[in-house]
Design a protein that fits this description.
By secondary structure, this protein is mainly α. It has one domain: Growth Hormone, Chain: A. The protein has 15 helices and no strands. The longest helix is centred in the middle third of the chain and has 46 residues. About 60% of the residues are buried.
Amino acid sequence: MTSPVTPAEGNPHDHLVHEAVGPSLTGLQVGATIGVGVNALLFAGVMPVLLGALADEHRLSAAGIGLTAMTEALAMGLSTAAMGLVRRPERLRLIATCACLGLALLNLLATGAGGLALMALRGATGATEGVLLWITVSMISRTVTPERWAGAFFTAQVLAQLILAVSLALIIVPRFGANGVFLSLTVCSLLGVAPALLSPQRFAPLPLLAGESEIPPPRGWIALAATLIFVSAGGAVGVYLQPLAHQAGLPAGVARTAVWISLSAQVVGGAMATLLAGRVRYFTVFIMTSLVYLTVWSLFARHVPPWLFIGANAMAGLFGLFLGPFLVPMTIDADPSRRAAMQSGAAQLLGGALGPFLASRVVGEGDVHGVLWLGAGLLLSGLSGVTWLRFTARRAA
């Protein structure tokens, strides 16, 4: 983070973040804090591979795929939100270290679980991951240009997910099945202790005006709701990637390949967001991403060749990651106090839980195409909220 700077010239809605909160951090501290967040979200990048393997081993049903993804994302989102509301950002090294060790234990215990027991364990895992994510979100929301730091975070996160996903798809899952994924996550959680010990000890509190509370204002809540609904669209479709591939007449290997190639594209998307931070309006990114998602999902509904299925999923991954860093500026534009921005990560995670939950209500053992219609409806609903915020911003100001 940097010291407060002079607001950028021009339209205030073109440059959404004008000053930082709190003292500067060293490069090592920033990198360590990003590493803590990467550890929290490592599972998200390999979720389709893991859930698909669990379904193939009959440890989860088709509906159980969505419910398990929902449970972990819901617990993570609630944990991140609760930490942002009730916990001051202090004693962060101790908190992060304990969370990493707890995460390793929970991933290890999951190797012998299935069904409801596995869902419960993934819920506890999500709550622990949420604590780690809260630390990284706390840093990002205090920076001068949060989309730049969010882009750096997402890029680092996807690079780590890519390395793990390639290893899982090509080596670990074919040999060791789903338990190989859990053991890999256990090792990664233990490695996460290193950045936890190098992270800052505390962050400065967000400033409050007289009579204000920690609760975001109404426009902030609308921005969070739009975030939740928009993100839930991608979550609803993403967790059913392997069943969608099967319905298109494609083997599980195509879905696993699509996951790691999509992660490669997401690296490009994160880098694009980092480079274009402060130069492109968030609303433009929302529109572009929506058009790409709808096109990709229309292809998923058809019998397409493997290269097209993989390429379409890669395009969705690129734009999905490109959009991610712009969710925070959209929230800050709606609520310049940044109190809503502190909850943006939680809203994204809750959206990741809502999507799979709703998807589990519209799928059957033989047909999962309902998730595509569900995803389109959620996407357009979230986009309508973002549109309303964008075109009422001047009046609200």
